[in-house]
Design goal:
- The chain is α/β, with parallel strands linked by helices.
- About 35% of the residues lie in helices and about 20% in strands.
- The chain has 15 helices and 24 strands.
- The model has no long low-confidence stretch (mean pLDDT about 95).
- The structure holds NADP nicotinamide-adenine-dinucleotide phosphate (NAP) and magnesium ion.
- Magnesium ion (MG) binds near residues 102 and 190.
Length: about 500
């Protein structure tokens, strides 16, 4: 088993995948993907722009129009997607390593979370493909009203870097299951797993053109997808700032459907009657540091009742050493590097800003392992944060937990909702009444009680307020992103 970032890697696929074949970017341009644990280049990857997106959309459109995928029966699509998952599973370790080296994700997380969830997602939507029913409208005897879901056509999926394989699956699985053709743009920072997965899809028998991958920069390839007149829907996961651009692209082009999964500044609310504090502390750290805090649902605000704060922080600090920082390819590592140097400095800048505004780092607070060449930040707890501070309001996207206190449940709810985001929230209490009452008041897409969770593939995931727009990932609800409703109204004479 590989345990060293400098160990040899599997042969990397680095070209765009269009119409079932690897191709260079039309311009011949390339971009370099780095290993954030070493700062060293991993691969030069085709850097696609509008020309390549045009090619990919044309081949996707052709595949959609001639029915080689869209025209298969739902059951046939189910079997093809199950075969796709099987091929991925045969290469599970390679996929885990690709995301670990490209994104700096701990290999143990990739092996036990990202890859299994990617498979589960593909299989879940494969199985769902032939279980989506339409409805018959309650007409009188002289009419028949049929309401069915039809694939939108060509779907663009623009992905972030924090869960490269899993976000690919979240978009591609329901889009393909519904019968669409898909053009994926992975993040320029983490293109390797998406390219390889497209190849595995072809190996599993997905027809050419049904699934295409155009690695490239956001401003070129991403924008070209957003503005393309022949893309029918875009599903985007990333920052709120870039998400807004996709609404503009759509309004200035063909009014394509847009679904946005965006950032979060999620609260972890520990009430005055929490369950076992060791359990809460473990979950609080998981919420803050899983995936290095580079997670839209990260519990970056710890809101704790003043009566339990000291006891909880003591348990938090006691469990903190479990969060080992190190080489992502070492199975013991739980915290890898920040995804790139610029992001490292952004996260350190937030920590510094917190101190300037009066917060105090009671753990971490600095860069670590600089000799590795990687972009590591020590898991950080900022105490004494107040709601007006920048670290309490902005998404840091690093391993930083900001601690605030409150006096009563009303005060707590005000704090939880006192943000422009509304993706997730967790709350801990022994009282079912308080849990239900508070969860009803929380303006977020997912509320977890006595745990940190995003739900699972069966439950819709997405945000209120500026955490999302236009749809949900996961659950049967994801099909709404990738389908149009068709009413057929028949007069019976
Ligand atoms: P990002 O900078 O917004 O990038 C997301 C995608 O958009 C990337 O593929 C990026 O390409 C592309 N892009 C960038 N600029 C663009 C432009 N001008 N036009 C079109 N596309 C453009 O986000 P990120 O840094 O990758 O991911 C972190 C963010 O994602 C965080 O805010 C996090 O909260 C959010 N997130 C949300 C969820 C959710 O489900 N709600 C899940 C995970 C992450 P390049 O990478 O090549 O620039
Ligand atoms: Mg990389």
């Amino acid at each position: 088993m590989t345990t060293d970032s400098r160990a040899p890697l599997p042969a990397l696929r680095t070209r765009a995948f269009i119409g079932g074949a690897f191709v260079d970017a039309v311009t011949g341009d390339e971009m370099t993907s780095l290993n954030p644990a070493t700062g060293e280049p991993l691969a030069d990857v085709a850097s696609c722009d509008g020309h390549d997106v045009d090619r990919a959309v044309a081949t996707a459109r052709q595949a959609f129009e001639d029915g080689r995928w869209s025209g298969r029966t739902p059951e046939e699509r189910k079997h093809a997607l199950l075969a796709f998952a099987d091929v991925i599973e045969q290469h599970a370790e390679e996929l885990a390593v690709l995301d670990a080296v490209d994104a700096g994700k701990p290999i143990t997380d990739c092996r036990t979370i990202d890859v299994p969830e990617t498979l589960r997602c593909l299989r879940w939507y494969a199985e769902a493909a032939d279980k989506v029913f339409g409805t018959v409208a309650p007409t009188g005897p002289s009419h028949l009203g049929l309401v069915v879901r039809e694939p939108v056509g060509v779907v663009g999926a623009v992905l972030p870097w924090n869960f490269p394989a899993l976000m690919f699956a979240w978009k591609v699985a329901p889009a393909l299951a519904a019968g669409n053709s898909v053009v994926v743009k992975p993040s320029e920072l983490t293109p390797l797993s998406a390219i390889r997965m497209a190849e595995w899809a072809a190996e599993a028998g997905l027809p050419d053109g049904a699934l295409n991958v155009v690695p490239g920069l956001g401003e070129t390839a991403g924008q070209a997808i957003g503005r393309h007149p022949d893309v029918d829907a875009v599903s985007f996961t990333g920052s709120t700032e870039v998400g807004r651009l996709f609404l503009r692209y759509s309004s200035e082009s063909n009014l394509k459907k847009v679904a946005l999964e965006l950032g979060g500044k999620n609260a972890q609310l520990v009430l005055s009657d929490p369950p076992d504090l060791d359990l809460v502390a473990s979950d609080v750290l998981l919420a803050g540091y899983w995936n290095m805090g580079e997670n839209c649902s990260a519990g970056s605000r710890l809101l704790v009742h003043e009566s339990v704060k000291d006891a909880l922080l003591e348990r938090v600090l006691a469990h903190l050493p479990e969060w080992l920082v190190g080489d992502p390819l070492d199975p013991a590592t739980r915290v890898g590097p920040m995804v790139e140097e610029e992001h490292l400095h952004r996260v350190l800048g937030y920590i510094q800003r917190g101190s300037q505004e009066g917060a105090r780092a009671i753990a971490g607070g600095a860069r670590v392992l600089p000799d590795s060449g990687g972009y590591f930040v020590a898991p950080t707890v900022l105490d004494g944060v107040s709601p007006d501070m920048v670290v309490a309001r902005e998404e840091i996207f690093g391993p930083v937990i900001a601690v605030m206190t409150f006096e009563d449940d009303e005060d707590a709810l005000r704090l939880v909702n006192g943000t422009s985001y509304g993706l997730t929230a967790s709350l801990w209490t022994r009282s079912l009444d308080r849990a239900v009452r508070l969860s009803r008041g929380i303006r977020a897409g997912t509320v977890s009680v006595n745990c940190f969770s995003e739900g699972d593939i069966t439950t819709p995931f997405g945000g209120y307020k500026q955490s999302g727009f236009g749809g949900r990932d996961n659950g049967m609800e994801a099909f709404e992103q990738y389908t149009e409703l068709k009413t057929t109204w028949v007069a019976l004479h």
